[in-house]
Amino acid sequence: MDLFRKFNIRRRQKRGVYEEDAIKIGNRNLSFLSDPRFAAAWASVEAAFKRTGDYLPEVRWRLLICLQAARIALNAEGDFVECGTNLGIFSNAICHDLDFGKLNRRFFLFDTFAGIPAEGLTEEERKRTVHLNDGTYSDCFAKVKKTFENYTNVELVRGKLPDTLSAVEGKRIAFLSIDLNSATYEMQVMRRLWDQLSASAVVVVDDYGFKRHEAQYDAWNEFSARSGAPIIYSPTGQGIIFKSVARNAAEKHGKPGLLA
To answer: C-alpha distances in angstroms, 130 versus 1, 38, 74, 87, 118?
Structure first.
């Protein structure tokens, strides 16, 4: 991080103003920006992007949500799963923050690592996919493999979801991150993995509340209504789901709490 950017972050922190990632809010405690543990996780991401020369978006508050969810997930049984990794901003930071290499868990990173497949999408999703593949995504598998080369318990699973989920078939899942830019793919993944989530598992849906992602917003709200799993809507645009809440609701109302 250059000195000018560091100065701006410190200045905004003193003023209580956060202005990144299309978010501008004031009167907030921003001490997390200078917290040594958070700063170290973000520095790990910066180092990876400096090595590859890729553009690093300023997504610190989104990253904070992911780190907090991952820390909570350590209380649940099972492995960690990320569906939609791309360059690995969040999974990189989580691995650094949790010292994941020393944990008796596996972290499965699912992606094509070369953009979003267009097969089976709605016409609207297909148009958006073409736009994203042209301007945002490229073949990044080698870069991501290098980023996680020191983590023997991190596995990159390359291919089209949900087909590649066979890699975690039968495994319990404690943490699940979903960022597939498609309601179709995200619902297919959720239907496959819901029963594998541990009772105290945590799910982070990255695109839940973003503009031009209304199809995903509607699909996840429908999922919430049918599964009994409330979605916490963060100002960052992320949605957070706690499996235990859905289970408790199902037990209270005598319903399975699962999509048909």
So the answer is: 32, 35, 37, 19, 8
